[in-house]
Design goal:
Elements: E1 28-32, E2 35-42, E3 55-61
Antiparallel strand pairs: 1-2, 2-3
């Protein structure tokens, strides 16, 4: 984490782990209608892609009072609706 895009950086812990069924998860963060969302992928779609298959996931992103992000817990149900 840093106050500037160029650093210096301070490690604040893991935000999101790599899904056990995929080699990567390529995250993104967006703000929509006043709420933050964490977008990533896992490998839950059954294909012949092995550990390279990808299924898009979206979960809420919450912040602590000091501005740090709360750890993302990967879900299988995702969001109900983006109202």
């Amino acid at each position: 984490m840093s106050r500037k895009v160029t650093g210096p950086w301070v490690f604040k812990g893991i935000l999101n782990e790599i899904a056990g069924n995929s080699n990567t998860n390529h995250q993104a963060i967006i703000d929509f209608k006043g709420k933050s969302y964490f977008i990533y992928h896992n490998g839950s779609i059954p294909t012949n892609g092995g550990s390279f298959r990808r299924s898009v996931c979206i979960d809420r992103l919450n912040y602590n009072t000091d501005g740090t992000m709360q750890r993302i817990r990967m879900t299988t149900e995702g969001l109900k609706a983006l109202n």
